[in-house]
Specification:
By secondary structure, the chain is mainly α. It has one domain. The chain has helices spanning 4-17, 19-30, 36-45, 49-70, 74-96. Helix 1 (4-17) crosses helix 5 (74-96), helix 2 packs across helix 4 and helix 4 runs antiparallel to helix 5 (74-96). The longest helix is centred in the last third of the chain and has 23 residues, at 74-96. The protein starts with a helix and ends with a helix.
Length: 97
């Protein structure tokens, strides 16, 4: 049986990984004509890479947070919130450089 701490860690890991499929879906819908490398180069060149991560973070983690609350998986929802806080500080550090 998993301890409560483990469920928070699983929620954290899901929250860390969740924005990437949303970004990939955004790429497939909007920028299909570019290769993945070109898409990433353009994102960094136009300085929108942090905004893309923020969009993925918002849609994926907000949906997962409410899903876990609805399923009464409060520890996993706590892990999602923790991952958002970690992303916030990471993006804050990246924005400064």
């Amino acid at each position: 049986m998993l301890s409560l701490k483990d469920k928070t860690i699983y929620g954290f890991l899901v929250g860390i990984a969740a924005p990437f499929p949303v970004i990939a879906l955004f790429y497939l819908v909007r920028f299909r004509n570019l290769s993945v490398v070109e898409f990433m180069e353009q994102a960094f060149l136009l300085k929108v890479h942090l905004k893309l991560i923020a969009i993925g973070l918002f849609f994926a983690n907000l949906g997962l947070f409410y899903l876990f609350l609805r399923l009464e998986k409060y520890r996993m929802a706590r892990g999602i919130i923790l991952s958002v806080i970690v992303y916030f500080f990471a993006m804050l550090l990246l924005y400064r450089f």
